[in-house]
Design a protein that fits this description.
Elements lengths: L1 H9 L6 H37 L3 H8 L2 H21 L5 H33 L3 H4 L3 H25 L3 H8 L3 H7 L1 H16 L7 E4 L4 E8 L3 E6 L4 E5 L2 H4 L3 E2 L1 H6 L3 E8 L9 H8 L5 H17 L15 H14 L11 E4 L7 E8 L5 H18 L13 H12 L1
Antiparallel strand pairs: 1-2, 1-5, 2-3, 3-4, 6-8, 7-8
Length: 415
């Protein structure tokens, strides 16, 4: 500043200390405006036009997240700080205030530049399958939180003129309070790392967690929450740490396998189960899927009965085919020949324990698609066929009496 007074005195202009400070501040302000105009109106605008017309994805992502805008603003703060050191006398109030403001500006926009850089890395990584399987968003949010705390401490220490170490040592007494305030972010950060390391969950996975009413696709994995879009288009928010502390079901394995399980049973009225008569056997032999089984089974039973001298005077003597056993074999053959059922996965028709609702016959198979609509159509088609053909085996589906059944009984008694 003394150099400025001497410079003006050479031209015969005498200025006092206050005027010289005002002139220096005007020079710094004007120079800052010129730098701002060059950076934002010329350099960055040219870069944005090139990025918008470019085919390079990374240029577009950088532009969208305003990385260079924030770097430019941080650079302007550095220039102001350098000017204040060069032009203003060290130790004066004006110099101290301007330098502190410039340094606060630099720290703030350096932090925002880091945020933009992390956003650029995250958005760019989502274009790759390997990186999209890692919950980077929660990790980056943790980095942002830690960076904000560090920069915040540095800014406060710069304003009060104390070392950051003093503030940090003072925070030790508030550790319990900080742990309580930042409990969810800390737990979420740890949970995000565990989810990533163990590959437990990724965006797009079908997550089912009845405790929180979640049953749908994962749309966002953040530092403190995971968002799930349920199949009814409602949004469920789950604490990130709950995915580590509680159990949840991830259906991604089913989606990747290419087959979705059918596991449903029908209840057979046990009073309709009986041995097949010769007429019934002859009629069922006409079924293409059953003929090989009936022929081989009939020969096997005939050989057994002959070997053991079993006569036909009683159904308790020898072996016979049952309608429910033949029905079970038919369903197995039907599924084996169904074009939408996978043959390389588990396929069986089994009996479950009988109960008050009859004898359950369970279909256990996998479709060759995981698409929900197609899966439901295939499953419905199979069971519609089962209900339609069960009467051919002399079987009845167990069903609780309906109002129509009660009315029929009443009418019969009235007659």
């Amino acid at each position: 500043m003394k150099d400025l007074v001497s410079l003006f005195s050479k031209f015969g202009i005498v200025i006092d200390q206050t005027t010289s400070i005002f002139v220096v501040l005007c020079i710094i302000f004007v120079f800052s405006l010129i730098v701002h105009f060059i950076l934002h109106k010329v350099v960055l605008r040219t870069f944005e036009k090139r990025a918008n017309s470019s085919q390079h994805l990374w240029l577009q992502i950088i532009t969208e997240n305003k990385l260079f805008h924030r770097v430019a603003l941080a650079l302007q703060g550095i220039i102001v700080n350098v000017q204040a050191v060069l032009w203003l006398q060290k130790g004066t109030d004006v110099s101290t205030i301007l330098i502190i403001c410039a340094q606060l500006w630099i720290m703030l926009y350096s932090l925002l530049s880091l945020f933009s850089l992390l956003d650029v890395i995250y958005n760019f990584s989502q274009k790759f399958t390997v990186a999209s399987n890692i919950p980077l968003k929660g990790i980056f949010q943790g980095v942002k939180l830690i960076s904000s705390i560090i920069i915040g401490i540095m800014m406060i220490s710069r304003v009060i003129g104390q070392s950051p170490a003093i503030l940090i040592s003072g925070l030790g007494a508030m550790a319990a309070v900080l742990m309580l305030v930042f409990k969810d972010p800390i737990l979420g950060l740890v949970a995000g790392i565990q989810l990533s390391a163990n590959r437990m969950l990724k965006l797009g996975d079908w997550l089912e967690m009845p405790k929180f009413g979640a049953d749908g696709a994962v749309t966002d994995i953040g530092l403190t929450t995971v968002k799930v879009r349920n199949w009814d288009n409602t949004i469920t928010t789950i604490p990130t740490y709950a995915l580590v502390s509680d159990a949840f079901k991830n259906w991604s394995g089913m989606s990747q396998s290419g087959g979705r399980r059918i596991k449903r049973s029908i209840n057979i009225d046990t009073t309709s189960i009986h041995f097949l008569s010769e007429d019934e056997i002859q009629r069922l032999t006409h079924a293409r899927l059953l003929k090989p089984y009936i022929d081989s089974r009939s020969k096997e039973i005939e050989d057994y009965n002959r070997t053991h001298n079993s006569d036909g005077t009683s159904v308790l003597n020898g072996r016979r085919m049952t309608n429910v056993g033949t029905f079970r074999v038919y369903l197995t053959e039907y599924l084996q020949n169904h074009p939408r059922i996978r043959k390389d996965m588990t396929l069986m028709v089994r009996q479950l324990a009988p109960g008050a609702e009859g004898l359950p016959i369970e279909i256990y198979a996998f479709t060759n698609t995981v698409a929900w609509l197609e899966y439901e159509a295939i499953q419905a088609d199979i069971f519609e066929h089962i209900f339609a053909v069960v009467d051919e085996f002399g079987l009845r589906i167990h069903q609780a009496p309906t109002g129509n059944d009660i009315r029929s009984i009443v009418l019969q008694k009235a007659l």
